[in-house]
Design goal:
Elements lengths: L1 E3 L10 H10 L6 E2 L11 H11 L15 H11 L6 E4 L1 H15 L5 E6 L4 H8 L3 E6 L8 H7 L4 E7 L11 H13 L3 E5 L22 E6 L12 E4 L2 H15 L4 H13 L2 H24 L3 E2 L7 E5 L7 H11 L1 E2 L1 E2 L11 E4 L5 H12 L1
Parallel strand pairs: 2-12, 4-5, 4-6, 6-7, 7-8
Antiparallel strand pairs: 1-5, 3-9, 8-9, 10-11, 11-14, 13-14
């Protein structure tokens, strides 16, 4: 278990930007597998929604309701089986996570977030911004949370347990029993359970079930459409809060952002209503094929790797090649493949490199890695 004393005024620049900047200035062709920017087509109804919005009356170009368009919030609420009053539409899942973490801190029931190791690095970054500490608890070999270790790490100082399922970077999918156990740990320590479900449409295992099914006033769920609709640039996400936490979250959202982009909300609403299930099924099928071919190449390279049960990331470990920033830069310069250093996600997988399979050149990247390490 590792603890990061991250309270303070200085914020570290995410390594994502450093790696992308390095790859952009490389002297050779580089396959970018750094960030989760989907390369596939968004739903056609989403494009239709944008076209229709362009011809709307001028009053439709003005501020939307701060908490989100009523029609969109009602559509979300129906799909999630919650009251629309609990839904706050945000500038992507990133802001939704920030709002839920802020609510956990504002309860004055601890200033620590329990996170998994490895962890999506923006979580400890947000904790740092909020003046909190982060304690990272290594996951099990399967990638699932070590609930016993979480229970041992939790204390009266724990404001919230924050997890992501399907998981970035391990590809693990937490089943309902695991979420219930984490909820119990949170309850035992008067903490909240924050669950980021942004990859909910990318479950290959059949084990995923939303934490909202627990129907608990300790559970706050976040998600968005950046990944599922392949629109990371739209910045439309949302959080579902227990009733007691909604008003303060809306106030913080209004003070920081005023509102979320109106055309993006209109387009997402149209896509939600008109996109058939086959859109998501075909995307998952395409990703399964990429995972198969990419891991085959990793076999040829003699690498160990995680096979994702959800999301679209593969972590790989190469002999005598720890997942440091300097080694990732070597891969860019010498193999022409850009991934993320494992050390960016914590200590437990610091020997690994994470690759995002959101490029049509995934097979080419796999071939380059096989040649480089084989």
């Amino acid at each position: 278990m590792s603890e990061d004393e991250t309270a303070g005024d200085a914020y570290d620049e995410p390594l994502f930007f450093q790696v992308m900047e390095y790859a952009a200035h490389a002297d050779r062709d580089v396959v970018d597998m750094v960030s989760g920017n989907p390369d596939w087509e968004p739903p056609e109804p989403l494009r239709d929604g944008l076209r229709e919005y362009a011809d709307a009356e001028p009053d439709e170009f003005q501020y939307p309701p701060s908490e989100g368009l009523r029609e969109l919030r009602e559509e979300i609420a129906t799909r999630r089986n919650v009251d629309a009053s609990r839904v706050v539409v945000t500038n992507g899942t990133g802001e939704a996570n920030y709002l839920t973490m802020a609510r956990a801190m504002e309860r004055d029931e601890g200033t620590e977030f329990l996170l998994t190791d490895p962890v999506y690095p923006y979580y400890p970054g947000k904790a740092q911004m909020l003046g909190a500490t982060s304690t990272k608890v290594p996951v099990l070999e399967s990638g699932d949370p070590d609930v016993d270790a979480m229970r041992e790490a939790a204390s009266a100082e724990t404001a919230a347990i924050l997890v992501n399922t399907p998981n970035n970077p391990t590809g693990a999918v937490y089943d309902r029993d695991t979420i219930e156990e984490l909820h119990d740990v949170a309850a035992e320590n008067d903490a909240l359970l924050l669950v980021d479900e942004v990859y909910d449409h990318f479950d290959f295992s059949g084990d995923f079930e939303s934490a909202l099914a627990l129907d608990s006033d300790r559970v706050l769920v976040t998600t968005g459409y950046s990944k599922s609709m392949a629109v990371t640039g739209f910045r439309v996400g949302y959080a579902v809060f227990p009733e007691a936490y909604v008003d303060a979250a809306k106030t913080r959202h209004m003070l920081v952002n005023v509102a979320t982009t109106r055309p993006g909300q209109v387009a997402v609403l149209r896509a939600l209503k008109e996109t058939p299930p086959t859109y998501y099924e075909e995307t998952r099928a395409m990703l399964r094929e990429r995972i198969d071919s990419f891991t085959d190449a990793l076999d040829a390279a003699g690498a160990a790797y995680t096979r994702p049960r959800g999301a679209f990331y593969v972590m790989a470990r190469f002999d005598d090649f720890p997942g440091t920033l300097s080694n990732v830069e070597r891969l860019i310069d010498e193999a022409g493949v850009a991934g993320m250093p494992g050390e960016a996600f914590g200590e437990a997988y610091s020997d690994w490199v994470r690759f995002a399979l959101v490029t049509p050149r995934a097979d080419e990247a796999a071939s380059r890695l096989a040649d480089y390490f084989g």
